[in-house]
Amino acid sequence: MKRQIRILGVDDAPFEFRKSKRTWLVGVVYRGNLWMEGAMVDSIEVDGLDATDVIRNMIVNPKFSSQIRVVFLDGITFGGFNLVDMDELHAKTGIPIVSIVERMPNIDRIKKSMKALPNYDKRLEMVVRQNQPTRVRLRGITKPLYVQSRGMDGDELVRVLEMSHRAGTVPEALRVARMIASALPEIR
Questions:
Q1: Regions of the chain where pLDDT drops below 70
Q2: 6-183, CATH topology level
Q3: What whole-number distance in Å separates Cα of residue 37 and Cα of residue 157?
Q4: Are strands 68-73 and 6-12 parallel, antiparallel or unpaired?
Q5: What are the structural domain ranges in the chain?
Q6: Could you say which of 9, 46, 148, 182 is the most buried, measured as most Cβ atoms within 10 Å of its Cβ?
Q7: Distance CA 81, CA 7 (A)
Q8: How far is CA 101 from the centre of its chain?
Q9: Closest by Cα among 75, 24, 43 to 184
Q10: Residue 1: predicted pLDDT
Q11: pLDDT at position 73, please?
């Protein structure tokens, strides 16, 4: 894989728990760890089930669709418990999908928190199907990442993770998506 591949990093904006109905989802297209090529913003329903479709629409955006080679998600939950179905996203786009978190998620706590939401069985099935994240250590970085992936694994995944970060553990596409998302106002 080329060193300067285009990566789509996706993160959600903050929202007010139990008050916000929607929140922003930010997608940033980055060339390796060198520079940002573009950004996309859309909204998702808090605790909804539309994150997979919104991210798919970002991937197939005509401006970037021919360039994106891998998608980095900041976890699999956005806007509370709006879960991304990584299998569906990979199957519909043919693009490798990688969920990246900096701490091992507590799956039992996630299951318990989702119990009060509609479509609990569907959400639970998605969480269980994703499997536990794998711990990955990047060369020269002491803090590990925890990743789940579809369409890319092993040495290729580690190579892409290593070439996509610059100053810290988190790949640049995700770092910049976080920065933009955190600067957006809450949706009223």
A1: 1-3
A2: archaeoglobus fulgidus dsm 4304 fold (3.30.2170)
A3: 22
A4: parallel
A5: 6-183
A6: 9
A7: 24
A8: 9
A9: 24
A10: 53
A11: 98
